[in-house]
Amino acid sequence: MRVLVVEDEVSLAQAIARLLEEENFQVDMTHDGEEAFLLATTVPYEAIVLDWMLPGMSGIDIVTQVRARTISTPILMLTAKDAVANRVEGLNAGADDYLVKPFATEELIARVHALARRPNDFMPDTTILYEDMRFDLTTRTVSYQNQQEVLSPKEASILEMLIRHSGQVLTRQQLMDTVWGYEADVLEGVLDTYVHHLRKRLAAIEGPSIQTVRGVGYLLKKAEG
């Protein structure tokens, strides 16, 4: 089972990740709110452990926007805010459970197990669109103006990320973490090679292009003409 841990205190995030890994969870981890939102809306997790106060985007905003996209991944909020009003705010925003810091590790583990057993209706669309380009996630087929190409699994994952976050520059690290996983030891050159092949496939159908934003990452651009 795959779980996302979102906590800006690095040592606490690492401790939580170790606890969950000992319980045989596969753990992804981030310390940034915007990256957490990116992962929560593209990866089908069994549960998310989410801190309230985060850089970039607050936990409450993440919950609200994730639920607005009808994603039902169970979310456990962690916070030092122990007032009843804060708990109500978190639950009303869409969190499934609430745990106040400091907490007992046994309780955290029990709550994550309970959430992970809940039905999860995270069902990404099987076909997504970018401008006039269609991408079938099941067959990994990308189509544009009666032309089509079948992508490799890694190429497909990269393109899906770029489409779902069109208009945003995705960093190399964001792409590597999502496509290969946080624990994978992937060199940036490997990602660049896959992007190179993906560009050739998109060019073959005269579709959108992938722009390199020097020193940052990649951005999907609409087809010219």
Concise description?
The chain has 225 residues and is α/β, with parallel strands linked by helices. It has helices at residues 10-22, 33-40, 59-68, 84-93, 105-116, 153-164, 172-180, 188-204, and strands spanning 2-6, 26-30, 47-51, 75-79, 97-100, 127-130, 133-136, 141-144, 147-150, 170-171, 209-213, 217-221.
List keywords for this structure.
about 220 residues, alpha/beta, Rossmann fold, Arc Repressor Mutant, subunit A, 2 domains, five-stranded parallel β-sheet, four-stranded antiparallel β-sheet, 12 strands
Question: Beta-strand percentage?
Answer: 15-25%
CATH superfamily of the largest domain: Response regulator
Structural class: alpha/beta
Instruction: Outline the biggest β-sheet.
Output: 5 strands, parallel
Instruction: Name the overall outline.
Output: elongated
In helices, the fraction of residues equals 40-55%
Mean pLDDT: 88
CATH topology of the largest domain: Rossmann fold
CATH class of the largest domain: Alpha Beta
State the domain count.
Answer: 2
- Rounded to an integer in angstroms, the radius of gyration calculated over CA atoms is 19 Å
Query: Counting H and I runs of at least 4 residues, what is the number of helices?
Result: 8
Secondary-structure element order, N to C: EHEHEHEHEHEEEEHEHHEE
Return residue spans where pLDDT drops below 50 for at least 5 consecutive residues.
none
CATH architecture call of the largest domain: 3-Layer(aba) Sandwich
Question: How are the strands of the largest sheet arranged?
Answer: 2-1-3-4-5
Find the count of extended strands (DSSP E, 2+ residues): 12
CA(first)-CA(last) distance: 45 Å
